Amino acid sequence: MHVLVVGASKGIGLEAVSVALRAGHRVRAFARSADAIALTHANLEKRRGNALDPADVEGALDGIDAVIETLGVPVRDLMAPVTLFSEATRVLVPAMERQGVKRLIAVTGFGAGDSRVAINWLQMAPFRLFLGRAYDDKGVQERIIKESGLDWTIVRPGVLVPGPPSGRCKALTEPSQWRNGLVSRADVADFVVKQVTSTQYLRKAPVLVSR
C-alpha cells in the first residue's frame, strides 16, 4: 500500500512511519518539518507541507491508498483555544473524498467524542483543566470523520508512554469496556499500521490500552 502519514515528524506519526516501512508499505511522510525526519529508506518520501493548506494536502494525497492522521499540538498551546484537529480534518476529509482515497485511520485519544463518559470523576477535573480544549476539538474532529463517506477507523489511545511495543495492547470497542490506561506510542503505531490492510475495526473507534 502507498500510505500517507499526516503529522509524521514526531510522536505516534514518526513511529507509524517506521512501522509501515517495516511492514513493506511505501510511505509519504507529511509534516511542516518533514525534512528533519532522520529516517532514510527506499520506500520513504518526505513531503513538507501544512495540514491546514488545501493545496498541500491535495498534492500529498496523489497516488495514496490510505491515510494515517496523527496530529498533535505543543503542551504550551493546550491552555489556549485549540482548533488544529478539526480544521485539518475539514481540509483532509473532502480532499480524500474528491480523490477517491477511502481509507482513513485517525488517532485522537481516550476522552474524545463519546468516550468522555468513561472518564471517572477523579480524573475529570484535571482532564478538563489541562486537556479539555484539545479534546473538545478532537470531539469535533471525530464527528467530521464519522459523518464522512470514508472507510474510517478512529483510534483512541490512553496515556501515552515511551518504550518498545509491549505485545499487550488491547482494543476496547464496547463502551462498557472503555477505561483509561497506559499505552506506548510504539504499540499505538503498530495497531494503527495494521488497520491499513484490515477491516476489523472499520467504522469503529476503539480505546487502546496496554495496562
TrEMBL record:
<protein>
    <submittedName>
        <fullName>Putative NADH-flavin reductase</fullName>
    </submittedName>
</protein>
<dbReference type="InterPro" id="IPR036291">
    <property type="entry name" value="NAD(P)-bd_dom_sf"/>
</dbReference>
<dbReference type="InterPro" id="IPR016040">
    <property type="entry name" value="NAD(P)-bd_dom"/>
</dbReference>
<feature type="domain" description="NAD(P)-binding">
    <location>
        <begin position="7"/>
        <end position="198"/>
    </location>
</feature>
<dbReference type="Pfam" id="PF13460">
    <property type="entry name" value="NAD_binding_10"/>
</dbReference>
